[in-house]
Amino acid sequence: MFECLILGDSTGVGTAQAINARYERHCDVQAAERATAAQVLSWRRPGKRYNTCIFSMGSNDMAGPALAARLAEIRAQFCFNRVIWLLPYARPQAYTVSSVAARFGDETLDLGRFRSRDGVHPSRYMDVAEALLR
Asked: What are the protein's UniProt keywords (predicted)?
């Protein structure tokens, strides 16, 4: 059974819709269009513990130490068996997200593997969902 929390920005919203459309057991979603890491930090934490968490953050932030600090703070507040970060299309932000994921020993899925019309969002979220659920 794939039970998860998807946390983050518009890519998280799209990924959640694709996963929840495909599977009977849905992921809970705390994601919003144009969400920044600072905004995610201000959101109320879920009372439930999840086996898997998918983080989709960084696309709406400037890359660098401030983003890395916010992402690390978000990550430190969650205790899951498995965490997967979606790496943004923008390479500077992807590097920052990847460095935080490596610090915590988390998995990553590089959105750069998937076609995009705007360089921010995947053309087909179902492709991302399938890669996550393999």
From this structure: Plasmid
Q: 56: domain range? A: 4-132
Amino acid (one-letter) located at 8: G
Residue 35: give its domain's CATH number. 3.40.50.1110
Single pTM value for the model: 0.93
Element (H, E) at 82: strand 82-87
Based on the structure, what is the number of domains in the chain?
Answer: 1
What is the C-alpha separation between 126 and 111, in angstroms, rounded? Answer: 12
Pairing status of strand 4-8 against strand 28-31: parallel
